[in-house]
Recover the amino acids of this structure.
């Protein structure tokens, strides 16, 4: 997706509730036009507060929010060129589906004929054509969400905000809606900003993700970069599974950093020259191989005993505990029907991976 | 009432019902004899007098002791009793005005208490509920003393003669409306309000199109409660009513002082019927299942 102008600029925004709670702490970020942007983080990290500040339901204690170049600090929620899909969908229970979708047009005095036409169009877009006469209590959860989507999109906003839109759906429907939201975003070309605590949701849908913790943005990057190059322990641990080892820097040579980890020995991995002292060494479970024999010298290897095998259908996680009590998780793809992981609890094995597949985390 | 339901025809029609009684389960209290006895006795105490009253309003006898045959005579007599009809019209006028004013006040109070935070809110909420808990006799005496102290004008033309009763009724019935509406507001999803504003609606439009329609069952229920309370109030009315502003309950009371004729029964029966209808409507509007009753073509 081509990157255009920043449609939303968040500048040094802080939000405090009372004296003690800082929900959002000095956040600055730009969201570009046409982007599918995700705010990702555990509950209580401030992502929803940030979203509600963009929508205008909360005012920043400090800082500035600009939408399409305009300062929003004095603009009420009903005058902002953005619309929101709420976590509870907030579909008006006493109105029909069509009246729900037309509501935002009715209150801004759009002519009746145009309301009907645009509402129908919006319902068509979310595949609810023909259900305009229903009441919300005659719809399923997924359909209610589509009503909320249509109701927001019919206003033709510059930005659509979505607050945990999929959290109330069951797993199968959630997956389908992820694809559906991406399709919809391509169809309407509107900037989407989604708040979620589900990393899979963010990874599969967004162009860029801001990972938040304690009111701060820890990392802002496209999904693959976030997964393969997390910049801190929190992001590494929050996105996907990660094996983390404590080590220290033993030397630096150009682009390579030589690290030493107890039980793993010394090995060098790519990294900038600024690392020193105690560092974290991380490796993803799917990058780790299991070997019966001692692997080659150029692999990082550690010997241990299988303590647990968890079968997930498509893949299995094998947990190997080494002499020092560390547990390393290894992800095995179950590629053939008959091929069981081939390991059982109690097996003595080697875990091995290429040095460059591991990652240096200084913070 | 639900006595027979436990052992009722739960299965298919063709199954032969066995004579043997099923054992009473540990939690099936409605199937225990002592529970049925208590419930039956309670209902008898509650409703026997009322049923008797209604039955004897059709009794063809001047004295209300022995059944002497069925007649509508006393309804006719009550209808032709001018002072009784006047009292009835007074009661209705008071009830209608009271309902309108108390409902508006009650809704405003409920919304204010739900919507805003202000200093002394808890104290205000407590004070507002006072008319519900205060003994009616105290309220009546207080009202009488108040109107006497400020010298409320007497001898005004007709609807105004009732003004002090109306004020007294509004004062004790609006908290009931507020409580009913407040109860409904508790279940209101505030995201609906946010969503309305997010879609471009102003504060007033949100109130008009989202909050008030949501409150409607509560408002109607509250209004009917206020109507009922006003229509059959005796104590407070008795203390505030003047010689020219007699209401139906007060009139019935004064008639009973001479003798309990079937005429009194007839007038009381009319009052009961109106009250019961209003109460049933109020309960229907308050029941949660009403919300699901959307018609579909």
């Amino acid at each position: 997706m081509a990157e255009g102008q920043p449609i939303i600029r968040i500048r040094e925004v802080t939000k405090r509730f009372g004296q003690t709670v800082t929900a959002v702490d000095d956040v600055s970020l730009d969201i570009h036009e046409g982007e599918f942007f995700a705010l990702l983080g555990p509950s209580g990290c401030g992502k929803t507060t940030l979203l509600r500040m963009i929508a205008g339901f909360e005012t920043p204690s400090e800082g500035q929010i600009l939408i399409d170049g305009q300062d929003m600090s004095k603009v009420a929620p009903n005058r902002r060129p953005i619309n929101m899909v709420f976590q509870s969908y907030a579909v008006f229970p006493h109105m029909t589906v069509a009246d729900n979708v037309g509501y935002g047009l009715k209150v801004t005095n759009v002519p009746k004929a145009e309301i009907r036409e645009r509402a129908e169009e919006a319902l068509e877009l979310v595949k609810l054509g023909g259900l305009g006469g229903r009441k919300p209590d005659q719809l399923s959860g997924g359909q209610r969400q589509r009503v909320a989507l249509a109701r927001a999109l019919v206003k033709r906003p510059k930005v659509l905000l979505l607050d945990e839109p999929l959290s109330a759906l069951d797993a199968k429907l959630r997956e389908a809606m992820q694809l559906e939201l991406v399709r919809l975003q391509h169809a309407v070309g509107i900037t989407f900003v989604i708040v979620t605590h589900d990393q899979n949701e963010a990874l599969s849908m967004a162009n860029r993700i801001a990972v938040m913790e304690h009111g701060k943005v820890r990392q802002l990057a496209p999904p693959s970069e976030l997964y393969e190059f997390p910049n801190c322990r929190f992001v590494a641990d929050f996105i996907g599974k990660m094996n983390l080892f404590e080590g220290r820097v033993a030397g630096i040579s150009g682009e390579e950093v030589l690290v030493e980890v107890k039980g793993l020995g010394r090995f060098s991995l790519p990294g900038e020259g600024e690392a020193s002292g105690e560092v974290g060494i991380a490796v993803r479970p799917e990058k780790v191989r299991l070997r019966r024999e001692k692997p080659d010298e150029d692999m990082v290897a550690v010997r241990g005993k299988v303590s647990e095998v968890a079968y997930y259908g498509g893949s299995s996680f094998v947990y190997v505990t080494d002499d020092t009590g560390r547990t390393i998780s290894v992800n095995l793809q179950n590629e053939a029907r008959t091929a069981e992981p081939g390991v059982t609890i109690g097996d003595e094995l080697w875990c091995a991976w290429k040095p460059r597949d591991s990652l240096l985390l200084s913070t | 009432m639900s006595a027979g339901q436990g052992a009722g025809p739960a299965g298919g029609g063709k199954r032969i019902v066995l004579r043997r009684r099923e054992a009473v389960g540990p939690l099936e209290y409605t199937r225990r004899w002592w529970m049925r006895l208590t419930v039956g006795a309670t209902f008898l105490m509650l409703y026997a007098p009322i049923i008797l009253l209604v039955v004897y309003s059709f009794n063809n006898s001047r004295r209300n002791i022995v059944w002497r045959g069925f007649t509508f005579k006393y309804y006719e007599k009550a209808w032709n009793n001018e002072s009784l009809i006047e009292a009835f019209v007074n009661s209705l006028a008071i009830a209608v005005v009271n309902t309108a004013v108390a409902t508006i006040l009650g809704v405003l109070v409920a919304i204010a208490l739900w919507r805003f935070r202000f200093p002394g809110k808890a104290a205000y909420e407590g004070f507002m509920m006072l008319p519900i808990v205060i003994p009616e006799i105290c309220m009546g005496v207080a009202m009488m003393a108040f109107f006497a102290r400020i010298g409320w004008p007497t001898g005004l033309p007709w609807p105004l003669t009732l003004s002090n009763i109306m004020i007294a009724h509004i004062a004790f019935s609006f908290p009931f409306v507020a409580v009913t509406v407040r109860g409904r507001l508790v279940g209101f999803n505030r995201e609906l309000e946010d969503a309305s504003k997010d879609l471009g609606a102003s504060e007033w439009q949100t109130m008009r199109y989202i909050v008030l329609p949501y409150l409607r069952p509560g408002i109607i229920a509250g209004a009917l409660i206020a109507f009922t309370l006003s229509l059959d109030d005796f104590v407070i009315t008795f203390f505030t009513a003047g010689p020219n502003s007699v209401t139906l309950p007060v009139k019935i009371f004064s008639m009973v002082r001479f003798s309990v004729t079937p005429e009194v029964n007839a007038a009381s029966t009319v009052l009961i019927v109106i009250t019961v209808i209003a109460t049933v409507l109020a309960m229907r509007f308050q029941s949660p299942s009403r919300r699901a009753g959307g018609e579909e073509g």
Notes: The first strand of chain A starts at residue 6 and ends at 17.
